[in-house]
């Protein structure tokens, strides 16, 4: 008996969903909106992909140029090369064409040199003048405009029948209140799936033109699942608003107000709160702190610095010699190596403190996600696309690891290949005063930078909190669904 | 229309939930926006207020312990701070101030490597855009007007009260015109209250800039009012009107400007940013491998007055060092110039296209009036470049001599002055 009742319940849900689709098919405005959404999605995919390809090519070109310039530099003193340094251009993320995330708000080039850690420069945002309403990319369409379509369509789904009097008819004919609401949700979700399906397939095709589908496939699946969950949630909320409203006008006022509040206003307010509660130091304050720490550690360029006097004594004792001239290597190189270790640690400690502030700011944003699930959906989406702040931080981390290794290798060359006696501007080489220069093949054989894309698993693990918030919202919406669709709450 | 009728219309309007809910919300949003604008700008002002003491402390730490060091050697470490003081109206329209540098510091090394450090920020937060009065006026205010006006005529028609109105007032069109004007006035007055509050609270000068801002906003609302009237005159159902108004809002506010942005980036690509970094680095470091005579000759072309200053050919000297730094700027001058031209070209092109999207155009205009836009930033960069040049010319006598730190009157160094 119970089984039969469930089966018939399912049939009823399907029948209501079917009716909803049929109605949408007959309504010109719904079809028009659907067509607009599809066009928008295609436009976004094509322009976004075009930009990704161009930017990636441009950065690769300059990265190669910098690499060949580094490898083909003339004979030089190793410390000269430490200051010549290296330029890194941040690689474009594999799914940047789908969701450019915060990529355009972060620097694109990073200068690596001895003694200091520079931040990335030349963000696209600082070079463009217009208002930031999200880039025109598929993710914006799917997260900002598809929900609007859902809110409008689902918002009138129940009230339309209530106003026409067919709702009472359905209920009288034995369609349960719950089946009716569920059917509406299912219908609207199916509708939106049909509407964006072609756009999604086209987006996938566009993206897969530069990426092997096997490489980005899992990411695309996660993105699909994420957005489907998000849409079902939005459709449910809008249908519930419709179920509780007397008129379509009232329901529309609620759903459109919700869109304005949660998709337009809260996403602007949450960063304000995050900034106000956990402010970052200004660059001037930050530099002052770093300088103070670095200064307290001593100056590697100054041979008489007290901090480095101890190093000398220890080294002399270790090798059992009386003067640095008797050491089996160039002592000046060792001083540079030690100095680099000190300054790197100082910089890293201060940069870590910035990361802690940014992590708190992210926490604030995630908590706002309870109110505006758009925020956490966006976070999860750009993390999966590889364009979130964590990926930027990871790039800076890998760049720093590379910088430190490069500089210390050069310092080792300084120790081993440069004779202490010729480590000053004593000679004139090619018409210029010079310290001893070492053969350029030493520089050509130094390792180059290879960006390692964080795995999808590690990325998602880092987004556990955002995922938890999304889950919480889903549970809250389900609770509201169960409550509102309780048979006793049915109102025709 | 008599005063009595107008009062009656207002009483009718006031009872609507959209008004009793929407107007306070817009008011609160406006006040929050002012508060946030003030917070952001005040924080920058606080940082700028510290510039002089911070620089003095840094210089003391570098120069103090070594009075007998060669002054030219110590100059290597000395950074001179610049300040981009915000205009009084900056809190109303933050523009790009959150992503542009406002207190660069320069050493007398090659300039191009020092101009493009942005301030520390969190790209996650900046990516959402700023929350300021310009945003409230440009983006939110039209939404309230749409909420007030979408069923202006269609609502009466759908409720069946239109024939009744026709009986009461012969000129129904005029009645709707008055109602629409009244609704626009409600939004307008709400914004004026917010601006008035800002003027008093922030102590803004009541001058042409403020008047221009109010004028731009007034025109903007009038534009929306006319559009809403046009939509009502189409005599379509309320739902259609709502979709049309919202659709136009979305296209004009978000989609259109985003598309212009994309096209501008495509039409004016900026490889110059990367090129200029590469060129500057090659120029300076390449100079170490060139004969000193060539490097010095290039330097003298620019600064002939130092041709007779002694620069030893067989050992390191500061004159040679800064001539090599100059080489970096010389080599990247062309790409820096191109970078600048492309940025300006892109900005000009975008602005002319944005005319088709009034919200974005008005937003850009407000930012320009508050001098928080790209053009203001470029003017600041120019002032930094001028300052850098002045510093170099000021310190060349120190560099080309053997003065000790204690011989130099450091307080005579030029100071940077720039206000948006």
Walk me through what this model shows.
The complex is a heterodimer of chains A (492) and B (420). Chain A has 492 residues and is mainly alpha-helical. Chain A has one domain. Helix content of chain A is 71%, strand content 4%. The longest helix of chain A has 44 residues, at 28-71. Chain B is built from 16 helices and 2 strands. Chain B has a two-stranded antiparallel sheet with strand order 1-2. Chain B is elongated. In chain B, helix 6 packs antiparallel against helix 9 (172-202), helix 13 (292-302) packs across helix 14 (318-354) and helix 14 (318-354) runs antiparallel to helix 16. The mean pLDDT of chain B is 89. Chain B has 2 domains: 3-26 and 134-251; 50-131 and 268-412, no CATH class. In chain B, 68% of the residues lie in helices and 1% in strands. Chain B is an all-alpha fold and 420 residues long. The interface between A and B is large, with 103 and 102 residues.
Number of strands of chain B: 2
Count of the domains of chain A: 1
Q: Could you say how many structural domains of chain B there are in total?
A: 2
The gyration radius over C-alpha positions of chain B equals 29 Å
Task: Spell out the blueprint of helices and strands.
The complex is a heterodimer of chains A (492) and B (420).
Chain A (H helix, E strand, L loop, with lengths): L1 H25 L1 H44 L6 H7 L1 E4 L17 E7 L2 E2 L3 E3 H4 L10 H18 L1 H8 L1 H7 L4 H32 L4 H32 L3 H30 L5 H15 L8 H14 L11 H38 L4 H13 L3 H29 L9 E3 L2 E3 L6 H4 L11 H7 L1 H21 L8
Antiparallel strand pairs in A: 1-2, 2-3, 2-4, 5-6
Chain B lengths: L2 H12 L2 H33 L1 H13 L7 H5 L4 E2 L23 E2 L16 H4 L6 H17 L4 H6 L2 H7 L3 H31 L5 H26 L4 H30 L3 H17 L4 H11 L15 H37 L3 H12 L4 H26 L21
Antiparallel strand pairs in B: 1-2
Outline of the structure:
Chain A is built from 18 helices and six strands. Chain A is mainly alpha-helical. The mean pLDDT of chain B is 89.
